Amino acid sequence: MTQNLNKPNSSEARCNRFKLMGFLTLCGAQLCQAAEIKIGVSLSIPPYVIQETNSGIELELLNQALAVKGHTASIQYLPLARTFHELREGKLDGIINIKDGMLDNVFYSNVAITYQNCAISLEDNNFTINNIDDLNNKQVVSFQRASSLLGEEFAKMAKANSGYQEQARQVQQVYMLMKHRADVVVMDKNIFKYYLKQAYLEGKLTEKDLKQQAICHKIFPPTEYKFAFLSEQIRDDFNVGLKQITQDGSLVALQEKYRRLMSFETEAEASTKLTEPKIIKNDSY
């Protein structure tokens, strides 16, 4: 009696069935674990968060890191206090731009983004700004709540300096500096670069304005932010994703994308008058 070589014996068939069932179970578990994560975002902070297009360095970083484990992010734009409240109530799964200790009963990610606040002046003014005390006798325009966020020494300067003011709309800081209505603006260097280009594209700054060289005086330490999640597993998945996009070059590509967005290279190529301005001295991404 000859054996049918095309027909597997019963033990082989059972083995294959078990393998298939195991594979399907594994796939099903992975699909079940993938989730839509509701993330609270309190402000539009270009180029980090651009609410109008639901984009920005932080939002794309968030999406790319979560996608490594199959998750997607649903962005919920809410006032800052409400993001905290809704996270505590379980109506959100996470929020961005948090420091250790700001919230209880959450799981903090690794450092996700670093801001660099600077005291920004115009080179032609030839200011020496090596520390916060050097701002005392100058017209200083800062972002909203800076006096409570940038440390005790800065708060003391803000209180004593009659020329100090805060602006809710950071684009106004850029106008005021470039139009010589302020000596110094205090803001993150990338936010400054983003709004400088937008002001030019909207016709609010001229090519002559852009030829002025701005200087970033790094008198503030970098500010590192984490993301906070209600789920330890989602936090861990985000950290894994963040590590992967850092190692595989995706994060560098993302940073380059937004560097070009803030650059004047394209406009310089299209214009016979405008040369690519350096925008800001003492700058590194």
From TrEMBL:
The record's annotation in InterPro entries points to: Solute-binding_3/MltF_N (IPR001638)
Please list the residue ranges annotated as the Solute-binding protein family 3/N-terminal domain.
36-262
The source's superkingdom equals Bacteria
Which keywords, in A-to-Z order, does the entry hold?
Answer: Signal
Q: Which family does it belong to?
A: Belongs to the bacterial solute-binding protein 3 family.
For this protein, the record's PANTHER family field holds:
AMINO-ACID-BINDING PROTEIN YXEM-RELATED, MEMBRANE-BOUND LYTIC MUREIN TRANSGLYCOSYLASE F
Q: From the Swiss-Prot or TrEMBL record, give the protein name.
A: Transporter substrate-binding domain-containing protein
